[in-house]
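Below sits the subject:
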Amino acid sequence: GYFRDVLWFSVDWVRIYECENRHWLDGPALQKSRHSHCSIGLDSALFVLGGSMDESLVADVEKLVLG
């Protein structure tokens, strides 16, 4: 397959889905805007791993404290 007319934008905003209440919340902003990353929630923290920026790959991990 192939992709056509696909644009990826790096963002620094975080949206968190609350399964119990079935709605989205705004989270704290990332230090680096990125896309195509991985996120892992553990206790009251959200870890954002890797991804890409408009110019290059992101090779770091950010820890966001929630609540």
User: Anything to note?
Assistant: Residues 28 and 62 are 11 Å apart (CA to CA). DSSP finds no helices and five strands in the chain. The chain has one domain: 15-65. The radius of gyration is 14 Å.
